Amino acid sequence: MTEEEYVSERLDNQIDWYSRKSSSCQTRYKALRLVEIIAAALIPFLSGMGEKIPGGQWIVGALGVMIALAAAAGSLFKYHENWIQYRVTSEQLKHEKFLFATRSGPYADQERFQSLVQRVESLISKEAATWAQVTKQPAKVAQGV
Questions:
Q1: Gap between the Cα atoms of 94 and 120, Å rounded
Q2: pTM, 2 dp
Q3: What is the predicted pLDDT for the residue at 56?
Q4: Helix axis angle, 79-101 relative to 112-136, nearest 10°?
């Protein structure tokens, strides 16, 4: 595999994948948190309305369930942790690519392509190991807002 093939088929592909996954996890994390915040803000308001809203007690109960489900889903799928880890990995891979393109740092010598492959594959392997460790951890008990 040539340098150009490796950079375009492996490195650029991985940078794009980690960036897309980071954005996706960020969106999901923020959406779940927004559900929690809005539902938590509505509970005291609706509780204060008393009997003025028909079925208000049911609505308050449903909002409480929504908070619990959103918190549990965020904890189970670990969107926050994955968002951060994927972003870090994407940025590290970009950093390596720019160092390689400018022949800087570890890429200033004759073995620059071999160094790139070793460093990039090491980053990808490290991220995969981190992901496996994070997903094996039991989900935290859902925390309120």
A1: 10
A2: 0.82
A3: 87
A4: 180
